[in-house]
Each structure stands twice: as C-alpha cells, then as structure tokens.
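Sample intake sheet
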Amino acid sequence: MLGTKIHFLPKLESPNILAALPDMGNVAGIGINYIIKKLEAKLFAEIYSYWPPYVSYKDGIVDYNQSSYKFYYLEKENLVIFNGEFNPTDPRRLYEICYEVVQMAERLNVQRLYSIGAALRPATSTEPKVFGAVNKEHLKEFVKKFGVELLEGEGQITGFNGLILGIAKERGLEATCILGEIDNPNTIQPKAAQSILNVLVNMLDIKPFNMSELEEEEKRKKFMEQQMSYLENILDRGEPPGIA
C-alpha cells in the first residue's frame, strides 16, 4: 500500500485541482513544475512511492532518499496541484495513485479536476494545437471557449494523465485533460507545455505569469536539434566532422 502523509489541510473554498505526471516529451512535468515554481505553491501532503529501487553510496556510506508524489496549494488562486517524478507503468500502482488523488480531492471538496499531457502530432500536421478531453458531456462547450479542440474519433490517453479522468468520473468528479501537440516524444517539449499553460491561465482564472524561461528552453532545444541534424548530414555524406 502507498503511504500518504498529510502535513496539514489548506483552507480553500471548493478549489480546482491540477494533477499530472511526466509523460511524452515531459510536457506535463515541465508544465506542472513551472506553475509550482512561478506561483510559489506550498507543499501540504505527500504520497511516498516505491522508488528508487536502489540505494546510493559514497565512500562506503549508504544513502537512501525515497521519492514521493506531492500535493501543493495556492490560496489566492484557490488551486490544489499534484505532481511527482515518474508515471507508474505498473497498473496496480497507477490505480492506487489515481485513487489517492481523487480521495484528496474529495477531502478538500474540489469542484473540478484538470490534467495535462502530450498528444503526438501527425506528420501531416503543420502547426501544433491544443486538444482536450472531458469526462462529462456539458464540459465540451466549456473547453471549446478557450480555443481547445476536442479529440475526435476513438483512441486512448495512457498513464496517469488519462486514467485519472476515468477514476474521477467513477467518483462523480468533473474532469478535463488538456493536451499539447508534440512532434517527438523522445525530446523535451517546452513549447507544448507553454501552450497548455496559456490555456490554463484563462481556464483557471489565474493571473498571467512570465513564461520567458520556457521560450528560452525552446530556443535551446531547436539549436541542439539543428546541430544534430547538421552532424547527421555530414556523417551521411561520409565527411569528417572537423576540429574546432
């Protein structure tokens, strides 16, 4: 079983909860951690996880730091935030985490749950979009008001960021997931995270905050991609990379 430690319960008035774990391109991880940092969210509870599966040592002395999932709150914004370092692949652990989050939401009388994540962009798509999925019919019009396109057809939203919507629905809690389009799941995607945050600022009625660090991170990402592409082209032609 998971161990939840509640340091204290914040006094909030039917807050929203933003809950997500790292996913493709670490879109959710970047977005959640950025909002925690910029709005100076305060920690109030933790769920201790089964990670890491090892201990470290230095000069023969063992050290052990058990990771945890964390609950934060923002009093002025009337918002609870849940995040963690990894998204469980074991279905049992994944369900346990989801139920712990929904139980916390019930304890705090949360009115709506928001999750975020990544959607892989088709090769035919040119401009990244922001997509959404909801667990209640009436929420469809709500997300559309903020320029979010609903996912069409049939498919799956895997991991915590999708499953939490189903667990919330099972317990009668409204929930929506906002997904930023990405082109590569194996590299960090700060631009997708920023596009989600731009939506959430309006959707959650949060005062806008500076996102220049995400813009700089996107520039660094593109520069590295250009360098890698340049080296690959040289190697494909059989030319030496050169010496600087």
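Comment: DSSP finds six helices and eleven strands in the chain. The chain has a mean pLDDT of 87.
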